[in-house]
Design brief:
This is Enoyl reductase (ER) domain-containing protein. This protein has helices at about 25-35, 85, 130-135, 135-150, 165-175, 185-195, 230-240; strands at about 15-25, 35, 40, 50-60, 70-75, 75-80, 100, 110-115, 120, 155-160, 180-185, 200-205, 220-225, 245. It is built from 7 helices and 14 strands. The protein folds into 2 domains: about 15-125, Quinone Oxidoreductase, Chain A, domain 1; about 140-245, 3-Layer(aba) Sandwich (Rossmann fold). The longest helix has 14 residues, at about 135-150. A hairpin with a 2-residue loop joins strand 2 (about 35) and strand 3 (about 40).
């Protein structure tokens, strides 16, 4: 733990927020344990955390759609707003993106942060701060379902029952899918997937020669790969029906 200077007062178009809940992402754990992810390497220090919800504490000049006391979820990546991708609405592809807890930018695991108001979204009174902090990772699953075109008739295979995999179960159900199969190495994670609404689960062994196709209960037309493991990426391609989609 380390004491750091309090966030600067909000400037034009910004708000200061009191942080109420921060999720722990796999990237946070990786930085904590290894000090790097690919080309991103830690310097002397880094504040972790990017899955965040909080309360508006102070408002900067020009902010009209938020007020002190508003409960909000925060989008952790701030785009430049000037490049072609930003101008056509694909700001997620901005090459100048400043993303929390990605060196050299600090994250939100602190008491107060200053952030552009445009990247703060009001929470309904019925949603807790913990649920609000999960909007950022859940958006990954919603986007995956949109890209894959999940519908009522979809047969969905989800590889990996970690947080993103289980959120994909929830999202696929919300999109109408009823045939949702989840695979994982760990039985405990599969139990969580079942509680989230998976219609079937398959525990796979720690074997490189394991043929997942021989153990599936149906042939999926949509497969969501949620592990990042090279073997699972290959398995996703092999398991999906001809003409299907892998995301």
């Amino acid at each position: 733990m380390e004491a750091i200077p309090m966030a600067a007062p909000p400037g034009k178009g910004e708000v200061m927020l009191q942080v109420k809940s921060v999720g722990i992402c796999g990237s946070d754990v990786h930085y904590w344990q290894h000090g790097e992810i690919g080309d991103f390497k830690l310097g002397d220090r880094l504040v972790l955390g990017h899955e965040t919800a909080g309360v508006v504490h102070m408002i900067g000049e020009g902010v009209t759609d938020l007020q002190v006391g508003d409960r909000v979820a925060l989008e952790p990546g701030v785009a430049c707003g000037q490049c072609n991708n930003c101008k056509i609405g694909r700001y997620n592809l901005c090459p100048e993106m400043k993303f929390w807890a990605t060196p050299p930018y600090d994250g939100s695991l602190c008491n107060f942060i200053t952030h552009p108001a445009a990247y703060c979204f009001k929470l309904p009174d019925t949603m807790s701060f913990e649920e609000g902090a999960m909007i950022e990772p859940f958006s990954v699953s919603v986007y995956a379902c949109r890209r894959a075109g999940v519908t009522v008739s979809s047969k969905v295979l989800i590889l990996g029952a970690g947080p993103i995999g289980c959120m994909c179960v929830l999202a696929a159900k919300a999109f109408g899918a009823t045939s949702i199969m989840v695979t994982d190495l760990e039985e405990a994670r599969l139990e969580v997937a079942k509680k989230c609404g998976a219609s079937a689960v398959v525990q796979v062994p720690h074997r490189s020669d394991y043929d997942i196709k021989q153990h599936l209960l149906f042939v999926p037309d949509i497969t969501m790969e949620c592990t990042g493991a090279q073997s699972c990426i290959a398995a996703a391609m092999q398991a999906t029906a001809s003409g299907g989609k892998v995301v």
